[in-house]
Amino acid sequence: MGDVYAVVLAGGSGTRFWPASRKARPKQVMALGPGTDRSLIAETVRRLMPVVGDPGRVLVATGAHLMATTREALPFLPPSSFLGEPVAKNTAPCIGWATRRIAAIDPSAIVIVVPSDQHVADEGAFTRALEAAIASAREGVICTLGIEPTRPETGFGYIEVGEEVTAGVRQVARFVEKPTREKAEAYLASGRFLWNAGMFIYRADAMLAAIESALPELSQALDELDDSEASVRRLFDRAPAVSIDVGVIEKTSPLHVVPANIGWSDLGSWQTAWELGDKDAAGNVVEPSTVTVEAEGNLVRDLSGSGRVIALVGVRDLCVVDTGDALLIMPRECAQDVRRVVAALEAAGRDDLL
Amino acid sequence: MGDVYAVVLAGGSGTRFWPASRKARPKQVMALGPGTDRSLIAETVRRLMPVVGDPGRVLVATGAHLMATTREALPFLPPSSFLGEPVAKNTAPCIGWATRRIAAIDPSAIVIVVPSDQHVADEGAFTRALEAAIASAREGVICTLGIEPTRPETGFGYIEVGEEVTAGVRQVARFVEKPTREKAEAYLASGRFLWNAGMFIYRADAMLAAIESALPELSQALDELDDSEASVRRLFDRAPAVSIDVGVIEKTSPLHVVPANIGWSDLGSWQTAWELGDKDAAGNVVEPSTVTVEAEGNLVRDLSGSGRVIALVGVRDLCVVDTGDALLIMPRECAQDVRRVVAALEAAGRDDLL
Q1: Helical ranges in A122-269 per DSSP H
Q2: pLDDT tens digit string along B249-295?
Q3: Which candidate, A11, A13, A19, A5, places its Cα nearest to that of A319?
Q4: Chain B closest CA to A293's CA: distance in Å?
Q5: CA angle, residues B293, B295, B301, in degrees to nearest 5
Q6: For A19, nearest residue in chain B (alpha carbons)
Q7: Nearest to A29 by CA among A59, A71, A86, A79
Q8: Spatial separation of the C-alpha atoms in residues A48 and A29, rounded to whole Å
Q9: In this complex, is the C-beta atom of A293 within 8 Å of any C-beta atom belonging to chain B?
Q10: pLDDT, tens digit, 9 for 90 and up, residues A313-344
Q11: Which of A80, A90, A173, B67 is most exposed, with the fewest beta carbons within 10 Å of its own?
């Protein structure tokens, strides 16, 4: 495994975990996972260690404005691990940049691309799925992990599987965008569709070839990279803002997919945080200092560090998130509406809370 | 009005306004009234000024352990205004003590006894009701204000009215304890019943005579009072723990009552605080920094002094009370259940929050 690298994508700054997540303190640096006080991104790196082996082979791509926060969340990585994107240009440019850098060391190195903000409950299964994908990627075919769906989710893209290639590895028949509810139900029933979790495994030279074929402009900019900051800025100035999925992967053939049943979650909202959390007898996911009286199904996260008492009396299915400078109270089923609070704060000029 | 005194009863330390109210910071020193940041007790004293005239004629009876907090809430009163009860013995002993002290200055002085933790919306009507009661009390009959009921409340005692004495003043037919729902509805329908709000108006010598007749033991202890702390302690050691209502007033005849329509509220729970509060278009009573998204009928009180954002998304009819060291979230209709949180904290040994 001495030639297996990881590229962790940490450019996001979502609003769905407000008030915990902020522009300057995005979801991935928060301890949103169940049963741990480590950040999602630290968990992501730790979880890769069985296959990557050495933290020195982990690259983290993040926005230049998030660099300090991201490095703080990963104190065990050397400074050279961090790639600061001067402007956000979706995932193709930064994956190209990271892959280029790895290829300069070893063109046939294996690269694992993973988002920084997901949760995996079954780490053994995750490791085995990666090992299958790595074996397949060594043959020069770009491989992806496909999550076996558990519900007709309309918020994810899907991968339709084709023929079996080897045990545990299948051809990708096609990628499909976020479906309607009806289609999602049909996908789930068919057993032929997997969730696209944005995890890719490939040989560095195979990806560079795929980029050259699908995005020649990006490829040329990558060729002109040197060690200077100016060349990075030129790359991001010129590069198209496109995802690796749409810009490269979906235009490449063949592709392989490893169906994975790994207890995966995108941790997409406070609702998900409740779903994953350890529940008391009344279905509450709470802090040690929470007091509940006839309260059921609530999520309480106190990120203020105060350890103060939060008393819930007679309430059901609420999310209560306290960050010290802000407090959010909403029904779990409204978890997608958090962005409306963020919009209201934006409109009110409360940049201090965004 | 140079002979009109007030005795403000501030011995209570209720649990119904937790977490705002605490053993050491009871309801009456909190700014729970609508549209003001002054404490209930400061409002109570201010509201009496039109008839009492001089803060120097206000006595405040409170527990010895609440003395400092109570004096802090009333910085405009001289130290001699405060009577510290060495032990809680209900209202008869402290009213007797205060009345005795006033009688030593002027036996025919008028005394107005009021609880420290109520709200009066119509202060003009309150002043007029007190003036009618004072005129009646000057004749030597103990008088009370009776609040015209607006609902079949089962949490208050009632006063049944008898014959009219003079314009605006009636005989008291009888006092009745907290009724059943059925009886409360009958009382409301009859038009002959008023709420007992614990406000009494009398000539000092008339009350001392009533105490002598109804509670001779207390009367004797009052006779033995001198200026020493030891004599106060002896009084409270010997005195029966009984309310002035049950121990004296209800055993005295005749009694007068002034029916009063003064926008009175006992501010008995967070539900009441919401009822009295200024509501936005969606029926929320909130802080300036509150952000609401499809939230209706909620009460938000931030007593932490932080001025931080509290965001309510899609919730209805909640109480949210933040004191910095504790946060309470409950439906308004559960307002009476706050005591169960207090009981849970007591059981958990969290005296710091009680």
Answers
A1: 123-137, 181-190, 204-214, 216-223, 229-238, 244-247
A2: 999 999 999 999 999 999 889 999 999 999 999 999 999 999 999 99
A3: A19
A4: 7
A5: 105
A6: B311
A7: A71
A8: 17
A9: yes
A10: 999 999 999 999 999 999 999 888 888 888 88
A11: A80
Which helix H or strand E contains B144, and what residues bound it?
Answer: strand B143-147
Closest CA to A339 of A347, A41, B306: A347
Chain A hits for B307, Cβ within 8 Å: none
In the numeric block, the tokens 């007749």 are attached to B213
At residue B315, what is the residue type? V
So what's the ipTM on this one?
0.81
Residue type at position A283:
G
Residue of B327, B337, B338, B351 for testing the chain A interface, max A β-carbons within 10 Å: B327
Q: Calculate the alpha carbon distances from A2 to A80, A109, B185, B196 in Å.
A: 18, 9, 83, 84
Please report residues of B whose CB lies closer than 8 A to that of A340.
293, 313
Minimum distance, in Å, between the CA of residue B2 and any CA atom of chain A: 49
Kindly determine whether residue A315 and residue B337, on different chains, have CB atoms separated by under 8 Å: no
Closest CB to A313: pick one of B313, B324, B338: B338
Interface of B with A in 298-327 (CB under 8 A): 306, 308-315, 318, 320, 322, 324-327
Across B65-102, b (16+ Cβ under 10 Å) vs e yields: ebbebbbebbeebeeebbbbbeebbbbbbbbbbbbbbb
Neighbour tally for B217: CB within 10 Å: 11
Contact flag B329-A341 (C-beta cutoff 8 Å)? no
Q: Is A183 exposed, middle or buried (0-12, 13-18, 19+ CB in 10 A)?
A: middle
pLDDT digits (tens, 9 = 90+) for B137-172: 999 999 999 999 999 999 999 999 999 999 999 999
CA–CA dist A6, A298 (Å, integer): 36
Which residue does chain A place closest to B329, by CA atoms?
A312
Q: How far is CA A335 from CA A324, A339, B208, in A?
A: 20, 9, 64
The residues, any chain, with a CB within 8 Å of residue B11's CB and separated by 6 or more, are B61, B62, B63, B66, B85, B88, B91, B94
What does the alpha-carbon distance between residue B353 and residue B285 come to, in Å, rounded to a whole number?
A: 25
Phi, psi of A82 (to 5 degrees): -100, 125
Which chain A residues touch B320 with a CB distance below 8 Å? Answer: 327, 329
